[in-house]
Automatic annotation (TrEMBL):
EC number(s) stated in the UniProt entry for this protein: 2.7.1.26, 2.7.7.2
Native organism taxonomy: Bacteria, Pseudomonadati, Bacteroidota, Cytophagia, Cytophagales
Residue span, Riboflavin kinase domain: 186-312
InterPro entries per UniProt: FAD_synthase, Riboflavin_kinase, Riboflavin_kinase_bac, Riboflavin_kinase_bac/euk, Riboflavin_kinase_dom_sf, Rossmann-like_a/b/a_fold
Listed GO MF terms: ATP binding; FMN adenylyltransferase activity; riboflavin kinase activity
Enzyme class, first EC level, given as a word: transferase
Record keywords, A-Z: ATP-binding, FAD, Flavoprotein, FMN, Kinase, Multifunctional enzyme, Nucleotide-binding, Nucleotidyltransferase, Transferase
Reactions accelerated catalytically: FMN + ATP + H(+) = FAD + diphosphate; riboflavin + ATP = FMN + ADP + H(+)
Physiological role: Catalyzes the phosphorylation of riboflavin to FMN followed by the adenylation of FMN to FAD.
Cited NCBIfam families: PRK05627.1-3, PRK05627.1-5, ribF
Name of the protein in question: Riboflavin biosynthesis protein
């Protein structure tokens, strides 16, 4: 897959089957749409092109609301890596800024789809909207396809609904229940996030459970429900088993801000400031307040036994 940042240097193709969207998570529903795209391109003897947008359009159109409420399954790098596996020929990443948001649907069609890409077939959903104020849609494109010089094909309602259901199911499972297995079922892979190891208050070390305190690389990244999880943590490409707490540590410090702490099993290296990737395997329990540190230690030992059982079977 060739990745193109922007459209200015993109060389028009002989034949191009094109679709567009945010494709957050590149989950099972998206994979069905991309399979449809590949099949259509094969029948048309053309190359596949996926147009996506970064940052997410809502960060430009509704910045205050998006910063508070929009949580994404994947950042741009993760999305690109997942799309690599889908055998798309070209990925075009368009910067969604204020100028781009003012582009009319006609300009999008003529300047990007026709002049820059040489689209011969456009594959979009029945409810897909584009251009300033979301003025363009399937009916508009279908009615004008002869003038545009490319054929418009509709992704079925069922495929679009599968994608919407998958996105909702993933977010609900993670946010409401911490159900990482359901998220994995819809994603086709373990949900994960990246971050850097930062200084903590070292309470875990004092009670025999040293933790890596992690600061998220992306503030918009979705974090699952507060609780204790069995995880894999990847450090410089090497995988380790561990257990993670997302929460406010009510027994020892009960703060306002959520923290992310990973106790890495059989590990005793200095990894401050290093980047790590945490892959969520199973939610063990909710975060609880214990009657003192001894009760907390007893529970952590039980958590470790359960996490090891999950991670080694």
């Amino acid at each position: 897959m060739k990745v193109h940042y922007g459209i200015d240097n993109f060389q028009p193709l002989k034949r191009a089957t094109v679709t567009s969207g945010t494709f957050d998570g590149v989950h099972y529903g998206h994979q069905q749409i991309l399979s449809h795209l590949r099949k259509t391109a094969q029948e048309d003897n053309s190359e596949t092109v996926l147009i996506t947008f970064w940052p997410h359009p809502r960060f430009t159109l509704q910045p205050e609301e998006a910063r508070k409420s929009l949580k994404l399954i994947t950042n741009l790098e993760e999305k690109i890596a997942l799309l690599e596996k889908e055998n798309i020929d070209h990925l075009i990443v368009l910067k969604f800024d204020k100028n781009f948001s003012q582009m009319s649907s006609m300009d999008f069609v003529r300047k990007i789809l026709i002049e820059k890409i040489n689209t011969t077939k456009l594959v979009i959903g029945y409810d897909h909207r584009f251009g300033k104020n979301r003025e363009g849609g399937f009916d508009y494109l279908k009615a004008n396809q002869k003038d545009f010089g490319f054929e418009v094909e509709e992704i079925t309602k069922q495929e679009i609904e599968n994608a919407a259901v998958s996105s909702t199911a993933i977010r609900n499972a993670l946010l409401e229940e911490g159900d990482v297995e359901t998220a994995e079922k819809y994603l086709g892979y373990h949900y994960s996030f990246e971050g850097s190891v930062v200084d903590g208050n070292k309470i875990g070390r004092k009670i025999g459970f040293p933790t890596a305190n992690i600061s998220l690389a992306d503030s918009f990244k979705l974090l699952p429900k507060i609780g204790v999880y069995a995880v894999n943590i990847f450090i410089e490409g090497k995988k380790y088993n561990g257990m993670m707490n997302i929460g406010k540590r009510p027994t020892v410090t009960e703060g306002v801000q959520k923290t992310i702490e990973v106790n890495i099993f059989d590990f005793n290296e200095d990894i401050y400031s290093k980047s790590v990737n945490v892959s969520l395997i199973h939610r063990i329990r909710s975060e609880m307040k214990f009657d003192g540190v001894d009760a907390l230690i007893e529970q952590l030992n039980k958590d470790k036994i359960e996490a090891l059982k999950i991670l080694t079977t």
